[in-house]
Design a protein that fits this description.
Layout: H1 4-30, H2 43-46, H3 55-65, H4 67-86, H5 91-107, H6 115-137, H7 139-167, H8 169-172, H9 176-182, H10 198-213, H11 222-243, H12 246-262
Helix pairs in contact: 1-4, 1-12, 4-5, 5-6, 6-7, 6-12, 7-10, 7-12, 11-12
Length: 267
């Protein structure tokens, strides 16, 4: 049997990841008219990335990514996302999601939407690891492994992002933030925008730096983790609002239940 906190964390990860996968897959399905023969994302163009020394791999990917089979792959992934939300994960669905995620990374030359796709890879790897361990060590141990795997990768992503900003003088001075916002949905910013005021831009930049770089502190206690995770929800919502990156919001929010669970760990 799973303990109460472990059950809640596991269910939240399943629900949020399932919803995130559904959104991603619907976006891929929307793009199907541009991935067929003659489209701007025609697989025949991208397949030139495959070296001539790997004809079997090229043939396999040709079979998967031709229009009809690619659509079947996406619909299967969509149904698996729905199943994840309604019935939970199992070893077969976990491996299927990991495999299809890797295929989509190949299809889009590494990532369709940057870090959110790699965080989705972390999440599907975590589920696959947990389900595989669960077959031998029991469901509870499997979920503990999955949540810790997701937690470590998520915290590391925040930590690295914060320290990169800290080491960058333009972020410390608040110069980079308005530059980024100028490229956003509402950019370029009006001349009188508060984000163009050096004191406000610096304040926001240092808030992001300290929060991201300090993310490992969330493992000290559940209360501290709640503060850091609440800040994460606000941050990712702002990224969605200003840049339209909905995938980033759901991918990283899915990892937060793992951080909250691991913050309660008794060493």
């Amino acid at each position: 049997m799973l303990a109460g906190k472990l059950i809640l964390s596991a269910k939240l990860v399943e629900l949020l990841l399932g919803f995130s996968l559904i959104i991603q897959t619907l976006e891929y399905l929307k793009l199907l008219p541009w991935t067929v023969e003659g489209g701007i994302w025609d697989w025949r163009i991208q397949r030139f990335d495959i070296p001539p020394s790997a004809p079997l791999i090229a043939a396999l990917l040709d079979f998967i990514f031709i229009s009809a089979n690619y659509k079947i792959l996406l619909i299967s992934r969509l149904l698996c996302g729905i199943s994840l939300m309604t019935m939970g994960v199992n070893p077969v669905s976990a491996w299927f999601l990991l495999f299809t995620n890797l295929l989509l990374l190949i299809r889009w030359r590494g990532a369709f939407n940057g870090g959110s796709d790699f965080m989705t890879l972390v999440l599907t790897c975590g589920l696959t690891l947990g389900q595989s361990i669960g077959l031998f060590e029991g469901e509870a141990m499997g979920w503990v492994a999955a949540l810790w795997y997701i937690c470590i990768h998520s915290i590391t992503s925040y930590f690295m992002s914060g320290w990169v900003k800290l080491l960058n003088g333009s972020w410390r001075r608040g110069v980079s933030l308005p530059i980024f916002l100028n490229t956003g949905v509402f950019g370029p910013l009006p001349a009188n925008s508060i984000f163009n005021k050096p004191w406000f831009s610096s304040l926001c930049s240092w808030t992001f730096i300290l929060w991201e770089a300090g993310m490992p502190l969330s493992l000290i206690s559940f209360e501290i983790a709640m503060i850091f995770c609440a800040a994460a929800v606000v941050f990712h919502f702002l990224v969605f609002w200003f840049f339209g990156l909905n995938r980033f919001f759901w991918a990283w929010v899915t990892s937060l239940p793992a951080i909250l669970y691991c913050s309660t760990w008794k060493w």
